[in-house]
């Protein structure tokens, strides 16, 4: 896409959803961190279903440590890989208590050093909890960036680097959520809703396939 196309692409997303929000339900930076760790290879819906009763009892790392790994597993048993996730959540909770006074650090390297927290998780927490203009690339964003031609790349990091360069400053704070939601509900993996897509005339895939544009 040209710089003008990119500007227009984001302008439309912003107009369609001026204040995008994460679909994970959380109370504070710590519960967000737990939710994002749980969301790996799981849907936000399934995570929210598990964390609603959990967060009624636990919303600090101190409370999580007191809860214990066995009881945590009872709450998150419905989520894939729950055994390993429970182990990581307990470990990172201990670190937060021992090294950070129970607070979630606002630093990417510090977050990535926590058990079960990778680059994507750290960037999501920095964006959602602390309002930093980071762009965490998940499968939805990777698909949107490549399919539309917004920021094509061979891997997640390549797409992230390109998005960091091409995304206008005024759109950076919300770019992460706009692109995720666009990929989740419009530019879907199997049946993209091209006929009702607000970006169809800008999309490289539509131009190549000749899908009729919405009127």
TrEMBL record:
Keywords: 4Fe-4S, DNA damage, DNA repair, DNA-binding, Endonuclease, Glycosidase, Hydrolase, Iron, Iron-sulfur, Lyase, Metal-binding, Nuclease. Binds 1 [4Fe-4S] cluster. Residues 38-185 form the HhH-GPD domain. It comes from the Bacteria. PROSITE patterns: ENDONUCLEASE_III_1, ENDONUCLEASE_III_2. It catalyses: 2'-deoxyribonucleotide-(2'-deoxyribose 5'-phosphate)-2'-deoxyribonucleotide-DNA = a 3'-end 2'-deoxyribonucleotide-(2,3-dehydro-2,3-deoxyribose 5'-phosphate)-DNA + a 5'-end 5'-phospho-2'-deoxyribonucleoside-DNA + H(+). [4Fe-4S] cluster binds at residues 187, 194, 197, 203. Its EC number is 4.2.99.18. InterPro entries: DNA_glycosylase, Endonuclease-III-like_CS2, Endouclease-III_FeS-bd_BS, HhH-GPD_domain, HhH_base_excis_C, HhH_motif, Nth. One of its GO terms (molecular function) is DNA binding. Belongs to the Nth/MutY family. DNA repair enzyme that has both DNA N-glycosylase activity and AP-lyase activity. The DNA N-glycosylase activity releases various damaged pyrimidines from DNA by cleaving the N-glycosidic bond, leaving an AP (apurinic/apyrimidinic) site. The AP-lyase activity cleaves the phosphodiester bond 3' to the AP site by a beta-elimination, leaving a 3'-terminal unsaturated sugar and a product with a terminal 5'-phosphate. This is Endonuclease III.
């Amino acid at each position: 896409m040209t710089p003008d196309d990119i500007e227009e692409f984001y302008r439309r997303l912003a107009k369609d959803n001026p204040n995008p929000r994460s679909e994970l339900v959380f109370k504070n930076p710590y519960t967000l961190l737990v939710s994002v760790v749980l969301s790996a290879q799981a849907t936000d819906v399934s995570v929210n279903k598990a964390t609603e009763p959990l967060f009624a009892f636990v919303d600090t790392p101190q409370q999580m440590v007191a809860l214990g790994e066995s009881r945590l597993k009872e709450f998150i048993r419905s989520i894939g890989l729950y055994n390993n996730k429970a182990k990581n959540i307990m470990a990172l909770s201990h670190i937060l208590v021992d090294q950070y006074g129970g607070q979630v650090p606002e630093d990417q390297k510090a977050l990535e050093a926590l058990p079960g927290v990778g680059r994507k998780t750290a960037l999501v927490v920095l964006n959602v909890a602390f309002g930093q203009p980071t762009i965490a690339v998940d499968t939805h964003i990777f698909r949107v960036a490549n399919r539309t031609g917004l920021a094509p790349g061979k891997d997640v990091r390549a797409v992230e680097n390109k998005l960091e360069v091409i995304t206008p400053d005024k759109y950076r704070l919300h770019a992460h959520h706009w692109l995720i939601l666009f990929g989740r509900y419009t530019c879907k993996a199997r049946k993209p809703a091209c006929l009702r897509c607000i970006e169809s005339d800008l999309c490289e895939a539509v131009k190549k396939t000749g899908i009729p544009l919405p009127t």
